[in-house]
Amino acid sequence: MPQHAAKLKRPLDRLNELPEEILLNILERVDMLDALRTCILSKRMLRFPAMLLRFDIDIGSLTLYHDKASHGYNIGHIARYNNVVASVTEKMMCARNPEVPIIHKLRVRCYLRPDECLPITRAFASIMATQEVDHAELVLLVEKTFLQCKYEDLLCNAKRFNTCLGDCSAAFAGLTRLWLGSMRFGELDILNILTTCKRLEYLRLSFCDAARRSVLLIEHDRLVELIFEQGKFEAVHLNRVPKLQRMTCAAWHYPVYPLYFGYVPQLSNISLTKRGGSLCMDLQLSRLLANVPSISDLHLNFLSEKIWVVLECPKLLAPMLGRLKIVNLDNLPEGCDIAWTMFVLEAAPSLMELCITVWDHWCYMVTDQELRRKHGYCEKANVEWQPSSSGFKHKNLVKLTIHGFQPDENMAQYVRRVMEIAVNIGKISLLDGKTCEQCRDLDPKIKVCPSAYPTTSQEKDMLRVVITKGLRMAASLGVIIFSS
Fold first, then answer.
1. Please, are residues 261 and 283 in contact by the beta-carbon 8 Å criterion?
2. Judging by beta carbons within 10 Å of its beta carbon (0-12, 13-18, 19+), is residue 81 exposed, middle or buried?
3. What secondary structure letter does DSSP report for 198?
4. DSSP annotation of 385
5. What is the pLDDT of residues 429-457, one digit of tens each?
6. How far apart are CA 357 and CA 158, in angstroms?
7. Where are the alpha helices (H) located in 375-456, listed in sequence order?
């Protein structure tokens, strides 16, 4: 066979023909272990892992294909997969090309087991000592979920982490992101973490605390985002966090103010989540946000239960909410009047976007009647509210979104009222209710009200006419948008 004919029949290796910078870019966008497998296929690509600028080594890419039904999932599997992550991390960092002096992202997600974590943290420390690392993140998983953890498990998890921290503090000193879960620390442990992790910009603590009703004091020069979820802290005092911009506090447990803001001059985004009941203390935003004059984005999640914010006088709230641009009010209980949300418009003259979600999300709600009575969860009731001024107009609101819209008098009148007072409104999105696949597996005795959301073009056009009838902007029917 002629030589040129043989070349024509040989399959083209289009991947290997790509320029080096494009190949590296592709490898950085796929799963790291898949990228390593790909590099084995070509002599040219064997040197690419040492040249990558982004590393994301996740134990989840190994457990994803584990057949739990056939083989179960036990400590032996965890140790084996953790060893793979540790080995890959160690080899990748040791083989690093010194001619590529920077790493943009270094992230490892593994189980918190000292024997396997120590090689990982040492590899982190080694590479940070020789190269510049823009973003370094460590996500440490524990072997049991929080609901499976006993008191001793929480203490053991915290002890394991403290061991890792002490064995290789140089690695933690270079971290920019850290996520810990299901740990009960000692009184000074979290202070030690913050002191050691000097570069930390993101800290997430899920189901963590330092004994029940402990008060956590936070001071850090570089933290930009803090997330506290389901911890048993009585309160978190942010005494001095000059670069903090985003703060999330989910499900505090005690009838006190969960957050105290000291010196937080850049804090602009706050998210609060709470399942309210009769024993829950209502929050005064004027008190909570007294030292946060720069807030621009506020998210309140009521988990389909009682509304736990006090509807304060707009003049009292205006100094705190004067720069507020975006508000999300999540999971308001179905069937209740939403007119009270107008207090946000009256208190926030610069508000541009308001998003409301009305949803009885059964995954969040306590459905057992005896448990509801025991924990003080209330029956549904309207929140009483009266407008502070009959001639009030809002000049900056341009977008209103309602998830869970129903064509009843409550919501139709609400939309009409917004159109009356928001003189520059440009878009009103009225969307059907959200859905959750997990809710389908709950108690079949739960009665779910069927949606009456308009489905045909005729129904939607008629509803637009009803809402805008008599308004001066009635000609702008296109402002109201329904789901397709």
1. no
2. buried
3. T
4. -
5. 999 988 877 776 666 666 677 888 999 99
6. 37
7. 409-421
